[in-house]
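Lab notebook: predicted structure, single chain.

Context: the supervisor wants predicted structures on file for every construct in the current expression panel, including those that have not yet been purified. This is the next one on the list. No modifications to the sequence; it matches the entry in the shared construct table.
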Amino acid sequence: MTTPWAELELSRHPEDPRDRLRAWDASDAYLLRHLDEEKVPLTGTVVVVGDRWGALATALADHRPTQITDSHLSQEATRANLARAGVGPGAVRLLTTQDPVPERVDVLLVRVPKSLALLEDQLLRLAPAVHAGTVVIGTGMVKEIHTSTLQLFERILGPTRTSLAQQKARLIFCTPDPGLVRPANPWPYSYTLPDGVGRVSGHTVVNHAGVFCADRLDIGTRFLLQHLPAGPRGGRVVDLGCGNGVVGTAVALADPEAEVLFVDESFQAVASAEATYKANGVPGHAEFRVGDGLAGVAPASVDLVLNNPPFHSHQATTDATSWRMFTGAKRALRPGGELWVIGNRHLGYHVKLKRLFGNCELVASDKKFVLLKAVKQGGRSAPAE
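Prediction complete. Output recorded below exactly as produced.
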């Protein structure tokens, strides 16, 4: 990426030479050009929110910014990109969306997220630290910035306007109003599950902002909950890509002897899963882990993996995440262990699973979804990553 100050070599995480997706886009470049051309003073506490792969934090490292992200993968990409740029440890403060925000913010740069709820939560959490002199600039692609996006800035921080579009990107300029009466933060949000979803019917779900389908049970998860495997009594079960943790909680309710591992790359999701689990007073043992799928889980240590993989990475449609999840599951499963996958019919997961495991069984289906099962064959387990 060419910035006003340097040429940066940036990559996503995990690095894959076959991945043609860039670690930055036109909205990142537009914001950096604006900061340079308008001589925006980058003094005091500079906070970068939603920096997807660390492009902004790396470019602005000389100003010792604080990065706030919901993504473990983005945070790891930022670390790698900073090191590649020769930036010393500690030059950029890395925070998650679950960490306390800085007490004072003098420059607030916001990469508009896909989730309006996540934007709302972050602006409400940061608002008390913003003052009349704070420079607030948002950035995003034109298709990501809607009237509702601008209304959030206006309602939470102050008067808001947008720039002209450049290369299908747009900037948001907000003038903080210290006297603005802000709404209460509605996140996290809780609701009671409906009947007809198995063991978790009538139980509580807790969602932090940005978690998929935060105000209702999505139909794919509903279908999976209606067909959950009995599983080995007392086995080790992984809710992979756990979201709000409703699937793993259902397993724990059905089998108090099970050891359930909740895994997601979203800090908001793992916090939601832990809150959902605790809200229902589930007996037994559970572990909550933010990470890249099953990386770090010992080979041949798991009996059952339940997975509803995403097929988007921000605005890009890709099967890279699902493939990493499936290969990680195979490595982590014991011989005879099972991977259960719920997905839209058109995604063709059965082809990938049969190629990887040598087998794939259709457990259940309807007009929209298929529930598939792959069994790890006996023999030597896959090597550790």
